[in-house]
Design goal:
659 residues; alpha+beta; DUF3176; 14 helices; transmembrane; transmembrane helix; elongated; 15-stranded antiparallel sheet
Length: 659
């Protein structure tokens, strides 16, 4: 009977016996053979006796699962490092690394982590194989099942099936199978999307000013025309039908398509308007009447300002038309005559405008019919605090605060601080001296850059703008079936295009002035809208004024060279970049694989120590001793018949034990 005895560094001090169960009856013969071999070994000279070698450092390290523990810790460290890196880049721009991309880094780190964990799992499976054989007698083909499980997911599935899921090795097999999704899950960790960041190397600018005193040439004693730029912007706001309304957008510089600013404070203008239709006195009466037609005269008037509008309406049985209309009346009135804005600085502007005349057949002519609308507006300079922004190359701003309180101040140009308060007055005219020596001053409490910042609006410029608006919006426009005309009421109407302005209000297509309900260009809607457009155009002029060249004025140029008083508001430039978002749910599978691998390794170490099993793991040398050449004589008993060592591996059962 052949016998196998393992006594070398491969067995690490263990002497094992692998005995076929059908040969247990010949134990006596085996023992005699062992005694004979032992005597032969002892009879050998010392020079040829084999001393047991001392275990090497590598063997000692392997015996204590050092490499497996190192790789499991290394795998965890890589996963933790990956989480830290991704957390640092979450919702941040994609890094512009020179030699590696974020995807490549994830791939490298997960590949190394997976390799480390699979090494530990494979070694744990190999060790659990020997523990499994030490627990009880097992079919020897189980060696092959365990060996295949340590090589890949298909073998791991076979081991789970063979063990029916009732062994610690199942955890290692699950880790081996789930490791297939390690890389795909890791690649799904990162999602790319477009976003914007601030470009710190560039700046955005928008116009803002704290001083305006620009005006044109004189046309009479101590009176000036409005400056050409302001006049041009106002005309564009009234005559242009461009929906983009460029005359309302202040100058700005945005190197990209998106820019933002901190709150900006600037001198601007606004137009306040109120509906005063309730003050209109309206009436209609028959002028003539026949069996087939009637002529009705309808009037509307404001008693205090003596404004009147009228329409001569011709009714027939089958049609209706207006023979003649004094349809739009505009007039600048003194604050004392104003109905709403009695505290206006210069003038209030009153308008009587007609709605569309409709067929009044069947309505008694004695009944008052509201076919007119009256509006009163007041222009005033203000200081506005707002937050501008540019989005997709479209400028917009949001109003934060408005300050309108002001005081009339006489300046002393010889003083070093440029302007000294000589007298403060709430009146609308200077107290001695010419207009160029006075200015309106605004001191909003929230103007903190610099502290107690003062905003200046020259009196000469203010009067020029007031006269400009007074001429534009004074007069009336009439039309009939064949003719139309304009009758000015201001003494200096020839200075500006007042006729064209009122004609535009009556029949023009003004930008942004359609009725939001009916989407029609009704005259009352256009009146209100056009006045707001005028205020926007004047505000643009104020903000665009060059502080180093403010126009014709008596201030020395040094008055405008202080950037703290006027200039351009600096903003931030946004650029589009690719952002990274981390989808943390995809880290679950790599973490699960690591946990299964760590638990499997810990279990393998625990079971090995508990059973006192040899630490062979996936070492193939112990398996070599199960092989016996077919030509070897296997004599048993007196017959001396020859047989193979393992006639049928499926019928062979072994148990691993200590010698």
């Amino acid at each position: 009977m052949s016998r196998m005895s393992v006594s070398s560094e491969n067995a690490e001090g263990f002497v094992q016996e692998l005995l076929p169960l059908d040969d247990r009856a010949s134990n006596d013969d085996t023992e005699r053979n062992e005694d004979t071999e032992s005597e032969e070994e002892q009879s050998r000279p010392p020079s040829i006796q084999h001393d047991r070698p001392k275990p090497s450092t590598a063997q000692k390290i392997g015996a204590y699962f050092v490499w497996e523990l190192v790789t499991i810790v290394l795998s965890a460290g890589i996963l933790i490092a990956l989480v830290i890196i991704l957390a640092a880049r979450h919702n941040k721009p994609q890094p512009d690394w020179r030699y590696v991309s974020i995807n490549s880094l994830i791939s490298w780190m997960t590949t190394i982590s997976r390799a480390c964990i699979l090494f530990s799992v494979s070694e744990a499976l190999g060790q659990l194989k020997w523990v499994w054989f030490m627990q009880s007698e097992r079919p020897i083909h189980g060696l092959r099942t365990f060996d295949e499980a340590s090589r890949g997911p298909f073998g791991a599935l076979g081991l789970i099936w063979a063990l029916r899921g009732r062994h610690f090795a199942v955890l290692s097999s699950l880790a081996m199978i789930l490791a297939l999704g390690f890389d795909p899950f890791a690649q799904n960790l990162v999602l790319y999307h477009q976003g914007s960041i601030y470009n710190l190397t560039e700046r955005a600018y928008t116009g803002d000013t704290s001083r305006y005193n620009a005006y044109g040439g004189p046309f009479e004693m101590d009176a000036f025309l409005v400056e050409p730029t302001l006049k041009s912007n106002v005309y564009n706001s009234l005559f242009s039908s461009d929906g983009d309304m460029p005359w309302s957008i202040p100058k700005y510089s945005c190197p990209s398509s998106n820019c933002t600013w901190d709150p900006v404070t600037s001198l601007e203008a606004r137009m306040l308007c109120a509906n005063i239709t309730e003050f209109l006195v309206q009436s209609c009466h028959n002028v003539s009447e026949t069996d087939s037609a009637r002529l009705v005269n309808c009037t509307a008037s404001l008693a205090q300002s003596e404004m009147q509008a009228w329409a001569l309406l011709n009714y027939t049985k089958s049609s209706f038309h207006a023979d003649k209309i004094r349809g739009l009346v505009a007039q600048a009135v003194e604050p004392s005559v104003a109905l709403v804005y009695k505290n206006a600085t210069r003038n209030a502007f009153q308008f009587i405008a007609p709605w569309e005349f409709k067929d009044f057949s069947g309505i008694s002519v004695t009944r008052q019919v509201s076919i007119w609308e009256a509006t009163e507006c007041s222009f005033e300079p203000i200081v506005r605090r707002f937050q501008p922004s540019v989005r997709d190359n479209i400028y917009s701003d949001r109003t934060l605060a408005i300050w309108s309180d002001r005081a009339l101040v006489q300046m002393n140009n010889t003083d070093d601080d440029k302007s000294t308060i000589g007298s403060i007055s709430s009146s609308s005219s200077s107290q001695g001296g010419n207009d160029t020596e006075f200015e309106w001053q605004f001191r909003p409490p929230w103007a903190t850059t610099p502290a107690n910042k003062t905003f200046h609006y020259g009196l000469a410029a203010e009067k020029a703008v007031a006269k400009f608006l007074r001429i534009l919006f004074s007069g009336y426009y009439w039309r009939n079936q064949t003719h139309e005309g304009y009758q000015p009421t201001a003494p200096d109407a020839a200075l500006y295009a007042s006729s064209d302005v009122l004609q535009t209000l009556d029949r023009g297509d003004l930008a942004g002035c359609r009725d939001p309900v009916s989407y029609q260009l009704s005259v009352p809607v256009k009146v209100n809208c056009s006045m707001q457009n005028v205020a926007r155009a004047i505000s643009k002029t104020f903000r665009d004024s060059d502080p180093l060249n403010p126009g014709n004025h008596d201030y020395p140029s040094s008055d405008y060279s202080d950037d703290s008083e006027s200039g351009a508001g600096a903003g931030r430039v946004e650029v589009n970049v690719t952002f990274i978002s981390v989808r943390w749910q995809w880290i679950a599978l790599p973490v699960l694989v690591w946990v299964l691998g760590a638990v499997a390794l810990a279990g393998a170490i625990w079971k090995t120590r508990r059973r006192g099993a040899p630490r062979w793991k996936n070492d193939p040398l112990p398996l070599l001793f199960l092989y016996q050449d077919e030509s070897e004589d296997g004599r048993r008993g007196e017959g001396g018949e020859r047989r193979r060592w393992v006639p049928n591996a499926d019928l062979l059962k072994v148990k691993l034990g200590h010698t």
